[in-house]
Design a protein that fits this description.
The chain has 276 residues and is an alpha+beta fold. It has one domain (27-255): 3-Layer(aba) Sandwich (L-fuculose-1-phosphate Aldolase). The chain has 7 helices and 9 strands. It has helices at residues 28-48, 104-116, 131-135, 168-178, 198-217, 226-236, 239-253, and strands at residues 12-13, 19-20, 58-62, 70-73, 87-90, 122-125, 156-158, 183-186, 190-195. A 7-stranded mixed beta sheet has the order 5-4-3-6-9-8-7, sandwiched between helices. Helix 2 (104-116) crosses helix 4 (168-178) and helix 5 (198-217) crosses helix 7 (239-253). The chain is globular, with a radius of gyration of 17 Å. The structure holds zinc ion. Zinc ion (ZN) binds at residues 56-57, 125, 127, 189-190.
Length: 276
């Protein structure tokens, strides 16, 4: 890895306008292996938070070669026990390469987003203690805490009443609601985030849940001005913030033996050390 002339790189324009790449590899096989390892770490992290414990939620990562296919956990595996052998490749028609069963809802929600946002590598969704209650209000976030500014003019709401997503067309409407933003609140359902890497998608997801917690708990909150929010968003909404969040959460929540890939974010901009 870290070849000066990589044959395989990925990434895209981050929401803050900075090009973000996963580490560079000399072969697509190495990039695929890396992405799957980080995806496993992401599932384990969700498990460490206690998320997905009722069989809800899913994280997907685009295959770097078969770019219309995505990696997903097979049905019935607890998130905290995920290994790379539990990941299956789901094609654009919902077919699974290994023949394993999958959560079909994951396909209906995630595949249309991967299709609509070809630059997006990863999509994350599960039902969380705060973002799910907040999503029942069917309201966008207000700028009432630092992390909220990461989503200033950069999140949306899916107002459809399909709390159980059971067809591809509903997923396409979710993708349309998401638009070009980094997150969508599914009405009466829960949060969903995207990223140009697994690390970024999960980082935004973690920050979104904190924002939702503030919204649920701070009953007399007063937002900062749009101008102040816009200023803060240039830093808080930068991809580096998501990578930092992912990195810290992995190191805080998972034992060393559970950390795969390169979640320590060696590519995290050093200048983005977060303020208190
Ligand atoms: Zn769900």
């Amino acid at each position: 890895m870290n070849s000066p002339t990589p044959a395989w790189v990925s990434g895209g324009e981050s929401t803050a306008g900075t090009l973000f790449h996963e580490p560079s590899f000399e072969s697509v096989q190495e990039l695929r292996a890396y992405r799957k390892q980080v995806l496993v770490t992401a599932y384990r992290l969700f498990g460490a938070f206690g998320w997905g414990s009722l069989g809800d939620g899913h994280i997907t990562a685009r295959d770097p070669e078969q770019t219309n296919a995505m990696w997903l956990i097979r049905h019935g595996v607890p998130f905290h026990r995920t290994t790379t052998s539990d990941l299956v490749l789901v094609g654009p028609d919902g077919q699974v390469d290994s023949g394993d069963a999958i959560n079909k809802t994951a396909y209906y929600i995630h595949a249309p987003i991967h299709e609509a946002r070809p630059e997006v590598v990863a999509v994350a969704h599960t039902h969380t203690p705060y973002a799910t209650p907040w999503a029942a209000n069917v309201e966008l976030f207000q700028m009432i805490c630092q992390e909220a500014t990461a989503f200033f003019e950069d999140h949306s709401i899916f107002e459809g009443e399909e709390v159980q997503v059971s067809d591809f067309d509903t997923g396409k409407r979710i993708a349309a609601a998401l638009g070009e933003t980094k997150a969508v609140l599914l009405r009466n359902h829960g949060p969903l985030t995207v990223g140009y890497s697994v690390e970024e998608a999960i980082g935004w997801f973690l920050l979104l849940e904190r924002v939702a917690e503030v919204h649920v708990k701070a009953r007399r909150a007063k937002p900062i001005s749009d101008e102040s929010a816009r200023n803060a968003a240039t830093e808080i909404g930068h991809v580096g913030m998501a990578l930092n969040a992912f990195e810290y959460a992995v190191m805080s929540k998972l034992p060393e033996s559970q950390i795969w890939g390169d979640p320590r974010g060696s590519h995290t901009p050093a200048s983005l050390n977060r303020g208190a």
